[in-house]
Amino acid sequence: MSTTPEAVAALPVTERPKLLEASRVTKRFGGLVAVNDVSFAVPQRSIVSIIGPNGAGKTTFFNMLTGLYTPSTGRVSFDGKETTQSRPDQITALGMARTFQNIRLFGTMSALENVLVGQHARMKSGIGGSIFRTPRTRKEEQLVREKGREMLSFVGIRGRFDDLAINLSYGDQRRVEIARALASDPKLLLLDEPTAGMNPQESENLTTFMRKLRDELNLAILLIEHDMKVVMGVSEYVTVLDHGEKIAEGDPVSVRNNPRVVEAYLGKQGLEEAGG
């Protein structure tokens, strides 16, 4: 079977090779079980979403995938390598990048400087080169700055490379954060509530942009999102968590119509009032 991006994209999402896999992952904090026995996969060149009500365990699950938390039990692998015990920097070097629910830019640094931070995992120059300003180091820094400008232009931040991050609009700050993640050359991009705080037009623009990322950069995207219009509009596959457990998964239409999913969002009383 051909593994070119075009061939992979032509396959149904459930038949594409797996890029990320989590097997029976659990996370305990003392007596609290935040995520319980969840198995999950992200196929290559796909856009998949994790949804669920507040407190469902979505961000905790993200944090285990990216190495911020170590699973209490279970196994995580990325691109064929086990990453269950790996540090965040090791996982980033393998090709996984993320954004956060609350924007984490350096406000008093420029948009370009923020993106340069994201390229650290790919830079070869060491401390000595930085101190003595060797030709190799200067050349690498030039290339890094060129790539930073390229990433900012790609996400739609043109002509504002030197603007302080704190002076950018909320939507543009989100784009800079995505550019910083893209600067690490990821194979998988994890977006945690990317449309939080955006107006409807900004959310719609970001939905279109996520498809562009997948199609033009051959990325897989894993999305946590509360805006169901965004989820249903962009996702090829959806997994639903509630109280740390997986209660449903499948294509967006089947998940949206799943009674357990409706109940998780509306509650039993709301479900009855809605005719469920």
UniProtKB/TrEMBL annotation:
Q: Which PROSITE patterns match?
A: ABC_TRANSPORTER_1, ABC_TRANSPORTER_2
Q: Which GO terms describe its molecular function?
A: ATP binding
> Does the UniProt entry include the keyword ATP-binding?
yes
Q: What InterPro entries does the record point to?
A: AAA+_ATPase, ABC_AA/LPS_Transport, ABC_transporter-like_ATP-bd, ABC_transporter-like_CS, BCA_ABC_TP_C, P-loop_NTPase
Start and end residues of each ABC transporter domain: 20-268
Q: What are the entry keywords?
A: ATP-binding, Nucleotide-binding, Transport
Q: Which CDD domains match?
A: ABC_Mj1267_LivG_branched
Q: Gene3D superfamilies from the entry? A: P-loop containing nucleotide triphosphate hydrolases
Q: Tell me what this protein is called.
A: ABC transporter ATP-binding protein
Query: What is the organism of origin for this protein?
Result: Paraconexibacter antarcticus
Task: Recite the lineage of the species.
Answer: Bacteria, Bacillati, Actinomycetota, Thermoleophilia, Solirubrobacterales
